[in-house]
Write a structure and sequence with these properties.
- By secondary structure, the protein is of the alpha/beta class.
- The strands form 7 sheets. Strands 1, 2, 3, 5, 13, 14 and 15 form a 7-stranded mixed beta sheet that branches. A 7-stranded mixed beta sheet has the order 18-19-17-16-22-23-24, with helices on both faces.
- 52% of the residues are buried.
């Protein structure tokens, strides 16, 4: 058996799989986020340990014999969090999370230093780890002076599980300290934030062993000795391992609260100017690119709240037959936008409204606006050298048949729907635990799920969608100019 642990923002999920990658069981425990000031987002690392212990305890209660057969553990986690420890491994302050924006000024200052984009392949976003340490140094100097270790959230769980200060490439690529092409810490980038490499965890690949489960924890959970803990992955790379998105050109689109277009690469292809993330993948000699939009299903849920109808009712009104875009265009920038604009201040808009603009017309425009935002990410990936020929759709938005047809036609790519199953980060982490424990070939393990159905672009509507997309593109600079 192999255990995957996924440390998310709202909870920890534990999943057991067997040698044939069949899911034996899963359990989870919740987490809360503290927001002591506007723009702040923090968690106490002790809560991560508590939640992980609860989730694994839930598995033990339901599957004690399976837990006893665990040979490998894989870790996945929310990225970018700054977990600061002193020389006794005591936590110095609550972890500053990925969605904390307090360090926006520090991020802009670091991003103005050309070496950051040159070495990391990415813009220095406020959510990344390096600007958070710059903020701590400026605002909490007594804390900064005591920092012996900087760990990412899942790697704090590793410290608890194994006693080791270790990390892996995919998560570390989101710190703004990794030389992403060379897959190693950059001394010059660390020095720019007044840190040294000795304060960073040692690095392995996500498929490699990164410690052994401590005997007291193995005894508590009824496991044997010498349980290997894999390097693991950041949450999106772990999800990609679960989805089998590991080969050159493989891609998936995740239509959740936010939207992600993720593509695997056999080489390092940075394009920071387009706000595409270029990170190491969890597998050796593999990288990935991500375009991120901040409001996907969140945009439809916002509109549902305004209309007083459920999102499902609104999409049902459209029927299943795709319609040509009308005169109304929706910009889904409800909380700013990441790819391709890197604009936290921009806000959304309806354009082209008329007396004839019914609720159904606006619903259609909202779905199209999100589809066009994902198309923006596709174009950014293409500009960075990646041209997917098809994508797999996952997430809540993929339950709307009309939306899937809209995505396929806006992207002019076939959209595959996976067969039923859980292919998320916990499953991907369990796969990495299997690889680390057995030495199995990573690409043979991280295979894609069966495709239940493929949604093809509507060829008759591709030209109309292209015209509407170009109109959508022209609106961003106009709205930006009008709202500055």
């Amino acid at each position: 058996m192999y255990l995957g642990l996924d440390l998310g923002t709202s909870g920890v999920k534990a999943m057991l799989i067997d040698d044939d990658q069949r899911i034996i069981g899963s359990a989870s425990a919740g987490l809360d986020v503290s927001r002591p000031h506007p723009g702040w987002s923090e968690q106490d690392p002790a809560d991560w340990v508590r939640a992980a212990n609860e989730a694994i305890g839930g598995l033990k209660a339901a599957h004690p014999q399976a837990l006893a057969a665990v040979r490998g553990i894989g870790l996945s986690g929310q990225m970018h969090g700054a977990t600061l420890l002193d020389k006794q491994d005591a936590v110095l302050r609550p972890c500053i999370l990925w969605n904390d924006t307090r360090s926006h000024a520090e991020a802009a200052e670091l991003d103005s230093d050309p070496q950051f984009r040159a070495l990391t392949g990415n813009i220095v976003f406020p959510g990344f780890t390096a600007p958070k340490l710059a903020w701590v140094r400026e605002n909490e100097p007594e804390i900064f002076a005591q920092v012996r270790w900087v760990l990412l959230p899942k790697d704090y769980l590793r410290l608890w599980l194994t006693g080791e200060h270790m990390s892996e490439m995919s998560d570390s690529a989101g710190t703004s300290w990794l030389d992403t092409g060379k897959r190693r810490w950059s001394e010059s980038l660390l020095a720019a934030t007044h840190l040294e490499e000795r304060q960073m965890p040692s690095l392995v690949e996500g498929t490699e062993g990164a410690g052994t489960l401590r005997p007291e924890l193995a005894s508590r959970w009824g496991m044997g000795q010498n349980v290997v803990v894999a390097g693991g992955a950041g949450d999106n790379a772990a999800s990609a391992c679960g989805m089998g998105t590991v080969g050159e050109g493989d891609a998936f689109v995740s239509l959740g609260t936010s939207g992600v277009l993720f593509a695997a690469n056999a080489r390092y292809l940075p394009n920071p100017e387009s706000a595409v993330h270029a990170f190491c993948h969890a597998l050796p000699n593999t990288w990935h690119q991500m375009g991120v939009i901040l409001s996907a299903t969140d945009a439809l849920n916002w509109y549902a709240g305004v209309t007083g109808r459920s999102a499902a009712d609104l999409t049902a009104e459209l029927g299943d037959d795709l319609k040509a875009p009308g005169s109304v265009t929706f910009l889904p920038y409800l909380s700013g936008e990441r790819t391709p604009h890197n604009d936290a201040a921009i806000r959304g808009a309806f354009a082209g409204l008329g007396h004839e603009s019914s609720r159904t017309v606006l619903t259609q425009a909202v779905l199209e606006g999100v589809s066009f935002a994902i198309r923006d990410s596709l174009e950014a990936l293409r500009a960075a050298g990646t041209a997917p020929t098809r994508v797999t759709a996952i997430g809540g938005g993929s339950r709307s048949r009309y939306w899937l047809k809209s995505f396929a036609t806006a992207l002019d790519l076939p959209v595959d729907l996976p067969a039923d199953g859980d292919f998320g980060a916990a499953f991907g982490a369990a796969r990495l635990g299997l690889i680390a424990a057995t030495g199995a070939d990573a690409f043979a393990v991280c295979t894609p799920p069966e495709t239940a159905e493929t949604i093809a672009p509507d060829a008759s509507l591709v030209p109309a969608y292209e015209d509407a997309y170009q109109r959508y593109r022209r609106l961003y600079p106009a709205i930006k100019e009008a709202t500055m």
